[in-house]
Fold Probable membrane transporter protein.
Amino acid sequence: MEQSVQLAAVISLAAAVFVGASTQRISGMGFALVASPFLVIVLGPHAGITLVNLLGACSSLLIFLQVFRQVEYKKVALLLVPAMLMTIPGAWVAARVDGPWLSIGIAVMVILALVSSFLIRNLPAAQGKPMAIGAGAISGFMSVTAGVSGPAIAGYAVASRWPQAKFAISVQLYFLVLSSTSLLAKGGLPHLHWTQWVACFGAMLVGILLGNYLAPKIPAKYSRAFVVLIAFGGAISLMAEGIIALLGH
């Protein structure tokens, strides 16, 4: 019985990581949003989110090494600096605000950010530096508090009309640095059985290879729509988790 439970856990981890890695390669983001709910269910909140940070960093690194010549470094730096600064107050808030209320608050912020990104994308301000700085700050805050940094960046990409192909490539450096920073802030790796480590990294490699094959075949408008859907889905799942937790109390 115990062996079957362990096997089910390994298969669940591998499936979640595989889908998350392929999504990340195709659309530029989505690893944490796709994989984290399942990893948290299998491993628990702390170990699950820590593993999301680790594998997210590794996935972004492997993709970044393939496309580093095409990265828009100045644009990424404009997002990264405020994001890394906001991990400090984010960690402070995460330690003091009750988890369910924090999840609901972040979900509301993400939904408002995505909706407003469509409303302001034709305004000149959407192309300016303040918008990028604000998006990076919100993303960094969310990375520490909820393990999810992509939705705010997706909103900025829509508002600023960042071409999907360039966004999907450049944002890998952003996620790599931010995931690594969040991982260091937590101070350690999750304790997994060696079979779980092998399954996770094997699934990640296969997922990226599948993404490499599919990415050029999917039109940019569909990839961008998928990014927005992932962001909305992540926000709704966060809100649902918070509401369920409150009702459970």
In short: The mean pLDDT is 81. Residues 2-248 form one domain. The chain has one domain: 2-248. The radius of gyration is 17 Å.
